[in-house]
Amino acid sequence: MLCPDCKTATPGGSLCPGCGHTVPERETFAGQGGRYLAVLAGVSATLLAVSLLARALGAGGPVLARLYARGWQWLYATFVATPIIVGLYYWFVLREEEIAVTDEAISRRSHWGDEHLRWADVHAYRRLSLPLRQTRLGRLTWFSRFFPRGRPDSAHGRLSGWPGATYELAGPPDAQGHSLIMRLEPGTIDDMAWLLELVQEHLGPPQEG
Ligand SMILES: [Zn+2]
């Protein structure tokens, strides 16, 4: 493991030789679903506030008034409610997301299935610059660049940039020649920068691919 305070490589559960703090045996990372929900609920609230204000001030008066008169409020309601509905969807798919790192292995609980890889079994570690539309969360991932970078108690998290790339860990091939691919995608996991540093401690820097 790495010491969360000074990044000295130290076995989990022992005292860091650099700063004397106890290094955790296990680090966990949660999904970012709650943050998508909060941001998109904010977008819905803003749309609602702006449109109520516009109505009160009479902006777009005849057009809006005509829409209401024809019973088209549902169109307006859909417009205001869409962001929060999208946010609820992302909260739902990311609610189970959790990645745990120890000195032995990395494991993930997820809506898309649970995965477990021992460091010793990882055959390849790659960094892919995929277009966001090819990631599991799609283009919405873009929002995550506005999220806090890391945990409030860690300086490393706040200082690092947005890792906009996808990282892949390939496991050993099974009898059919298929190997488990664990994908760490931008915008799914809390404090991705710190997670990548912990991965790099065991696997070295990723291959570009
Ligand atoms: Zn330390």
Structural overview:
- The chain is of the alpha+beta class and 209 residues long.
- The chain has two domains: 36-93; 108-208, no CATH class.
- It has five helices and eight strands; from the N terminus they run βαααββββαββαβ.
- It has helices at 33-57, 61-69, 73-94, 155-159, 192-203; strands at 27-30, 98-101, 105-109, 115-118, 124-128, 166-173, 179-184, 207-208.
- The strands form two sheets. Strands 1-2-3-4 form a four-stranded antiparallel β-sheet, with helices on one face. A four-stranded mixed β-sheet has the order 7-6-5-8, with no helix packed on it.
- A hairpin with a 3-residue loop joins strand 2 and strand 3.
- The protein binds zinc ion.
- The site of zinc ion has 8 residues, from loops.
- Zinc ion binds at residues 3, 5-6, 8, 16, 18-19, 21.
> What's the Cα radius of gyration?
22 Å
- The amount of helix comes to 25-40%
Distance between the termini: 26 Å
The tally of domains stands at 2
The secondary structure category is: alpha+beta
Order of helices and strands: EHHHEEEEHEEHE
Hetero compounds = zinc ion
* Content of β-strand: 15-25%
Q: Ranges with pLDDT <50 over ≥5 residues?
A: 152-160
**How can the largest sheet be summarized?**
4 strands, antiparallel
The coarse silhouette is elongated
Q: What count of helical segments does DSSP give? A: 5
Strand adjacency order, main sheet: 1-2-3-4
Average pLDDT taken over every residue: 84
Q: Count the E strands.
A: 8
